[in-house]
Amino acid sequence: MIPNAELTPITQSQYLHHIEQAAAFLRTNYDQKLLEWRENFNSDDILARDYPRFTFVSATFEAFLFQLTGKTLHAQPAKKALLQLREIIEWYPSAFGPYRKHDSYGYWKTVPAVPPEAYACLKGTEVLSSEEEQLVEGWLAEYAERFFEVHEWGAHNRALWVTRDFARIIQLLPEHPSNQRWKKKCLHLLKTSWGNWSIEDAQIYLPLWLSKMMHIADILEIPGLFKEYNMLYYLNYFLHLMAPHGMVTDFGDARWQECWHWYLTCFERGAKEYQNEEFKWAAARIYETKARSAQPEEIEIDFPFLYQCCDDSIGIQPPSASSRMVLDELAGKKIVFRNGWEPESSFLMLNYKGDQDYGRCDRDYLRQSINVIAEKMHHGHTDENAICLLMSQGSVLLNDAGYRVTLTNGQYRADFYHNRLSIRNEPPNPTEPLLNSLHKRAWYHPTRTEKIHFFNYEKWDYSRTRVKRAEEGWEWDRAIIYLKVEDIFVIIDRVLVLKDCFLNVNNLFHTQQLLNVGDNWFDTRFNDIAGWKNPTNRRLLVWFLPQVGMKVSCEELQRNHALNRTMYQSLSSDFQTGDIIPFVTILIPHSPDQKCEDLIARIKELPCSLFPKGVGIMLVTATGPLHICFKCDLEMDLIKEEIRPKYNYQLGKLNFGNIIETDARLLLLEENKAAVHYGFAEASKIHFKNQLIFEVPSLQPSIYHPNGDFLHLSQPRWDWWEDQAKITD
Hints:
Structural class: alpha+beta
Radius of gyration: 29 Å
Distance between the termini: 52 Å
Strand order of the largest sheet: 7-8-9-10-19-16-13-12
């Protein structure tokens, strides 16, 4: 991949070149492809997805090129494909034989008799006679009536997939007696998405939903769409999920580097509307990744709209944002760690989106009308607090689970297919692999999530996010600490037991190849993802903190359409209310010539005085030892008495390695010759080697009592801070 300095804006002429190439290819191979489709038709496909898409593409591209150039070269192929489609569509459902009874649900119901975009380019030209136009318009009217048989609604892709065609038919047939009825239905479908959050948490379907909404707004000339808050929101959402491999990172139902044309459309249309050079940069990056080398058969039917969206006057500017929330803790619920926007930059994405607090009717309707019990509504996975992608120097080191093969058995969507904790109330069967036991409960269970912390420091970035399933008796926090200079990720997981129960807790990470294995560690690599050859210049060392009673092992798992090796650290036992189960995992990207034993020698446990209320790690860095002190028990510093503030330093302090005392919920402290550099989250004091290096500088009187009496003097707690302090001998 080329660096940002060599990236240039994509122009209309480049998109047009792809349309011309695709049209020429289909013009030459149309009859043969149609014959092959009929011969290889899959009559067992109950959803009838296997329709001849190339015929629609051919008609649309040839008609568009005729409208643009007026060349007769395109007229007859456009007419042929347009008029022949009726015959294909009439033959199509009858080919199902015994499955004909399923026609009312089959996807062929949403396949247009002719592509409206193609007819829009040919209407009123000499290509079609008046009789042929009447014939085509009759077919389009029949198609429009089918929209009243397709009962999809809500802020998701399928509600808008065909609504774009509906909008075009309304525009093409203004005098039809049903036009106003059609328009009412079209606007009804559109308004369930317009100005609303999408209910889908899936990399494939979000750009489809947004790009169709953009096209509908342009067809019906509704400029207000781009004034809605969610339009600019989702464009920035996509932008900040761009990963070094040149695409939006996988999450939920996703296929590696697919649906790139929908993202191109969103970014080009957004760049044009908002005159935004960062959106234009994203389009250029995706184009260089996928479109430039795309074969003619890979050019999608939306390319004429993409051509219209492109504004050649806009330059490109790569974003400058560092690690951040994407975009918020309510709708987006993702966190990205990065050290740049180049193809060689490091990147990690955490998804902590659970069952949403919006779109309830839309989600309930889908649950009650289609078989989606394995999904987080909609097209989402059980991937709360999962690491969806980790890249370093262009190499993928951790990836997401992929899009399922079968419909409803939880394949790829269940929690254990992801880089996260998998927790069960049932003990594993000792006679079978752990993953077999976990698969016995693969359905989605509604889950609440929230952000606890996210802070950027000079040398480190830090997040803490929570997943809660009170009915199952547990609450799980995942903290990620990115050491930007060392390019190391420290993952600290803490499970709080909410009721007396049995828990089987498993800390899972997935890879394709194990290069080396030692006590509590694995050296790993991915070879390829969906045919994409992964660079082999980087490996990932996965190190688990050894703990008494915890098992570290590895099993095989078919995941993301490839054989994976699942590494895990697990603990199964009866627990009591208030028990804490911590895990520490350190992810170290490294070159092949670096020995794992040398990397591991830099890691030491920093004993905590009240383990497991806290856990500590020390890493040797180039500038000195880095002490990581993490508080697992966030309520230990609370006074039982009903006064305010309730927190108390003496109750909340923890000692780490007999050199650090603090009440911080996280402390990062780098020690060098005569000074320390530190950053913390929520603290009142820090002592290092018996020296007070930080204390909140003021005391506040508390006035929390019905009679207004002063109850006590209290010391405030700061939310976060970063500083340096001198150390004396």
